[in-house]
Amino acid sequence: MSFGERLSKALHDAETSQSELSRLLGIRQPSVNAWVKDKNQPETKRVAEIASALNVDAGWLLDGRGDGVGSLMTATLGKFVDNPSDNSTSSWAVENDLQQTGAAWQIIKREQQEAPVRVGVICEQLGINLVEKLGPDSLCGSIVKDGDDYTITVNSMHHPNRQRFTIAHELAHYLQHRHLIGDGVVDDALYRSNLSSKIEREANTIAARILMPDHLLEYIGAQEEDDMEAVALRFGVSRQALALRLGQITFD
Ligand SMILES: [Zn+2]
Question: What is the pTM of this model?
Fold first, then answer.
């Protein structure tokens, strides 16, 4: 298979259009089309971003090695990662095997410069529609795919902190589980859906990482002298979400 054929297969498997990928990478659609048509090939650095966005192995995408199946949490980018995750030694740091690479994570990282992290702005910049809608208490939110468009709906009856967590949770499905979304995923009050509980736990973990990045946890944790209540307030999250992020509890 040529590079273009592998990219075409990866796009198809991830149910991602060329224009959607170009938007994720922040480039023009004809560039993606030229790669698919084998008229041009992206830089190695860019291949890692594409692989991460489409959840395939970067080595496979680059030269056909391996089977092209990326693991959910650890897209094995190996040496192709130009921006390895930080090796923070903060007491707030928790074990992390999530590769925060790819164009979408670049957008998220820009918004993670200060707390509270603006999840609505992240949706906007990723081209995801965000809808606030009155719903029963038993429903947190959903992510629905319509053509090339994704819509996240959040229950406007819930506390603003809960809404922020829900949006981050649905964003996690978009980032990490796009190939599993199908026509849509609806999360109940306990973030359970038609997806497996393993996938849902993963989405909660990623949501907490979106809302509370390492460097801000370290900074704000020190400023507030590790006062959990005060730290949660600064992040606009619940105590429970903060505890989840710190590995003190797990959502099940
Ligand atoms: Zn979910």
Answer: 0.63
